[in-house]
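ARCHIVE CARD
Drawer: 12
Card no.: 0347
Subject: one protein chain, sequence and derived structure
Cross-reference: see card 0346
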Amino acid sequence: MEKKIEVIIQARMGSSRLPGKVMMNLCGKPVLWHVIERVKQSVQIDDIVVATSTQKFDDEIEDFLKSIGTRFFRGDEKNVLSRYYEAAKQYPASAIVRITADCPLIDPHVIDKVVSCFLENNFDYASNIGNRKYPRGLDCEVFTFNLLERAVYESTDEYEKEHVTPFMYLKQNSILSVENDKDYSNMRWTLDTIEDFIFIKKIYDRFYKGDHDFYMQDIYEYVVKNPEIYKINNHVIQKSIKFKSE
């Protein structure tokens, strides 16, 4: 049976460092819209669902998603693992791609590479975040529904439930690390602070003319040629994750 690949984008307004970041105005549209539009370019995916919380402040996200006709699911704010699982049950798929809504530079070609490697090698879990060689902000994880279900029933601590996938890459063996040909891991392209937003806005001001036709290599070359842009947010500290291989 051919796999159905579903992207579940986690999104909420309650960020501790930059509240409301997923709905911040970026070139006339919310950050979340840009994420969705870029993900839509992936040729390997079959469906997109946004998983947000049942908190009142996330009504804004629901209203927006209704206005653009994007599927959504609302679940537990803190237990994101449960939220993913319930979303995947409501919109069934054999495999799920995890994307976060604070990545408006997400690259559909990178998504396609990770998904292709996942499908070709018959792993339960594949990602580009283990031995990181991609910029932070192009993170992509793919896992089977069966593994997601196992994680829901076997995860034992709050960290595993809040971050969705630690159980998958720490406590089981069928995992695949997808790496870029060159090491771009020193690049920070995610949205977690106001400095990150200023950086991303610079990229959009340079490339975005109504179409999301700029990708990892375009952005990388521009940033390298303009080191003052790189310096805007390269000092921001991101919480690290630990894989079994480390």
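Annotation on reverse: The two ends are 35 Å apart (CA to CA). DSSP finds ten helices and nine strands in the chain.
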